[in-house]
């Protein structure tokens, strides 16, 4: 008989009884959280961070390690107040449920996040917290668009409104009005430099090729714009390790909250993810690190080959399935993958176009990795949505797929399937699916891409003419040929028939 729903909130005081309440189904921290002290500040606390980096640290703490590496979340965006309030209401605990394709579940309460600071309430207090010498790592999951980079030039955009405001504020010594994580982190580094304290490591965990290098270039550029000497010090003294992170983590739903409640307690913001997880991390830190390797993290000298494998196979394949899948009427990722043509298309893209651009990976079976991805995408237990994968395409496509296109064009290799994926984005951006239902396009450049997509039928290359996104690809006859063929086919016969044509060819 199902357990009745309960209003027992997840808090520290509930932990001793939780095993009994849930009939042993929910594991709880074995360590004394009152003994955990801060060592990491994480900017961008969302589902992925809580299913990935925070989980690895919780795993270490359950081994009796890393109790001086507790995580303090830092919210910078106004919307982050929701996460602050949800976590604060339950002593910063939350439930992580991992689901395997066979339906097996692992449910555990994660305790490695010990506090959360909402910077807009008091930016100067956030700087003080970051400047605390106990903080030895500042980690980031701020999405691809958070680094304020020009898509074509690859350089830091230093004249945007909030960046310019924070630069002026720092030059005036005003910490009270800072708006961006660039301003907050740079202010804290300036304080470390002033007091002679060792700087923290800045550890990007975003899906960007060379994410540590990107973080280095953008933070150093911002610091130099504030003060040349400060920028030189950041360049010389701060470590920015590259990393590759992987775990499919869909957005939390009310059904996920209900699933937790059915166990006998309530959680305002649980997390659900697949059972697969991977973290490859460059072993380069300014002020020490947890023994991540004891929690299953792979510490390496060079992350780049692993990054390319993941970004160009997994992440780009997500884009390869989402637009075609949404246009065809699917709303859940596992429903897309239940149609064999999608798996065949993704394997063809990965094998023919993505894999030739990868660097050597000794000991990695690429064919097995590709087929593992297809199985992961088809995991119905995760309940990942197609719309999540379609979001923020103007940031994702240039970083995950277009590098594949450019390398293949330069080498004289085919780009037909990659061009078709871009065409499917252009068709999706028109804002209506094949049944005439409206599409809500979630993208920081939504209006801009919609305006371009509205011209697709009159000017088949209209979408590609945005050089800020696509650079000079509109000038490539090889690319535009594949793109034009696919877009015309999407308009003429639809997504499924277009995939059949691509596979047949």
From TrEMBL:
Catalytic activity: D-mannitol 1-phosphate + NAD(+) = beta-D-fructose 6-phosphate + NADH + H(+)
Domain Mannitol dehydrogenase C-terminal residues, every copy: 302-490
Lineage of source species: Bacteria, Bacillati, Actinomycetota, Actinomycetes, Mycobacteriales
GO annotation terms (biological process): mannitol metabolic process
EC id: 1.1.1.17
GO MF annotations, alphabetized: mannitol-1-phosphate 5-dehydrogenase activity
Location of the Mannitol dehydrogenase N-terminal domain: 39-291
Protein name: Mannitol-1-phosphate 5-dehydrogenase
Keywords from the named record: NAD, Oxidoreductase
Family: Belongs to the mannitol dehydrogenase family.
Pfam families attached to this UniProt entry: Mannitol_dh, Mannitol_dh_C
Domain of life, source organism: Bacteria
Entry annotated with the keyword NAD: yes
């Amino acid at each position: 008989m199902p357990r009745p729903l309960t209003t027992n909130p997840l808090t520290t005081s509930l932990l001793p009884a939780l095993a009994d309440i849930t009939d042993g189904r929910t594991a709880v921290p074995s360590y004394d959280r009152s003994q955990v002290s801060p060592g990491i500040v994480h900017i961008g606390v969302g589902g992925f961070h809580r299913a990935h980096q925070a989980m690895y640290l919780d795993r270490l703490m359950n081994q009796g390690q890393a109790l001086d590496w507790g995580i303090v979340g830092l919210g910078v965006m106004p919307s982050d107040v929701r996460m602050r309030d949800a976590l604060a209401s339950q002593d910063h605990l939350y439930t992580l449920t991992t689901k395997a394709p066979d339906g097996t579940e692992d449910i555990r309460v994660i305790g490695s996040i010990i506090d959360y600071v909402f910077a807009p309430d008091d930016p100067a207090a956030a700087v003080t917290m970051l400047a605390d010498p106990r903080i030895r790592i500042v980690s980031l999951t701020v999405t691809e668009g958070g680094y304020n980079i020009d898509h074509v030039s690859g350089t830091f955009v230093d004249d945007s409104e909030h960046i310019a405001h924070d630069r002026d504020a720092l030059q005036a010594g005003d910490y009270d009005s800072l708006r961006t994580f660039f301003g907050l982190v740079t202010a804290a580094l300036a304080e470390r430099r002033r007091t002679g304290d060792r700087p923290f490591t800045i550890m990007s965990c975003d899906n960007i090729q060379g994410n540590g290098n990107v973080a280095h270039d953008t933070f150093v550029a911002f610091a130099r714009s504030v003060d040349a000497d400060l920028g030189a010090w950041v360049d010389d003294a701060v470590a920015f390790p590259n990393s590759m992170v992987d775990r499919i983590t869909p957005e939390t739903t009310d059904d996920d909250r209900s699933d937790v409640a059915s166990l006998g307690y309530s959680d305002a913001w649980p997390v659900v993810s697949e059972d697969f997880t991977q973290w490859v991390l460059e072993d380069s830190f300014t002020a020490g690190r947890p023994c991540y390797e004891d929690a299953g993290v792979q510490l390496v000298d060079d992350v780049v080959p692993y990054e390319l494998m993941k970004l160009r196979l997994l992440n780009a394949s997500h884009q390869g399935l989402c637009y075609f899948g949404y246009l065809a009427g699917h709303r859940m990722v596992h429903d897309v993958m239940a149609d064999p043509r999608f798996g065949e298309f993704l394997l063809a893209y990965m094998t023919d176009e993505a894999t030739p651009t990868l660097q050597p990976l000794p000991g990695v079976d690429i064919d097995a990795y590709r087929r593992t991805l297809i199985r992961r995408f088809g995991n119905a237990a995760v309940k990942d949505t197609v719309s999540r994968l379609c979001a923020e395409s103007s940031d994702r496509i240039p970083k995950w797929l277009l590098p594949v296109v450019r390398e293949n064009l330069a080498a004289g290799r085919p780009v037909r399937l990659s061009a078709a994926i871009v065409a499917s984005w252009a068709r999706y951006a028109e804002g209506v699916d094949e049944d005439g239902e409206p599409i809500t396009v979630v993208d920081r450049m939504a209006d801009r891409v919609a305006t371009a997509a509205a011209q697709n039928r009159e000017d088949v290359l209209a979408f590609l003419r945005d050089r800020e996104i696509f650079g000079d690809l509109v000038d490539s006859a090889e690319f535009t040929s594949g793109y034009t063929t696919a877009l015309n086919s999407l308009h003429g016969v639809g997504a499924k028939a277009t995939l059949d044509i691509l596979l047949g060819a």
